[in-house]
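Worked example 2:
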Amino acid sequence: MQIRLIEPQLKNWLLVAEGLNDPQGWNRFVPCHDHNSERFLFEGSARETTAIKLNLCKELLVAGSCSFEYSWDTAEDDVLEHAMDIAEKLGVELIIGVDVPLHPHTRAAA
C-alpha cells in the first residue's frame, strides 16, 4: 500500500491509498473486503478523527485504490498532520505531491 497526499487543480487536497490488496472482482457497490484488508484499515484510520471532515471520492474508488477529499474549510496544516498520522498508524511512507492520480479508465493506457 502506498499513501499519497495530492493537491489537484479542481479539487481540494486528496488522501489517496494505492496498491490496496482488494480481492479479485472487488466492486464498490458490493463490499467484499474483510476487516484485515488494507482498504478497511485505511478507511478506518482516515475516518477515525472526527475533527477532520473527509468525503469519499467515488470517481476514484476503484479496485486497488481509495481516495478521500478533505473539506475546503480544513486548514492545510491540519490536512498534513492528519495525513502524516494515518501514514504513521499504517506504517507506510506518506508521499506528498501535486500530481493528479490517473482516472481509472486511463490507467491501462498509461
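The chain has two helices and five strands. The domain at 2-97 is CATH 3.30.70 (Alpha-Beta Plaits).
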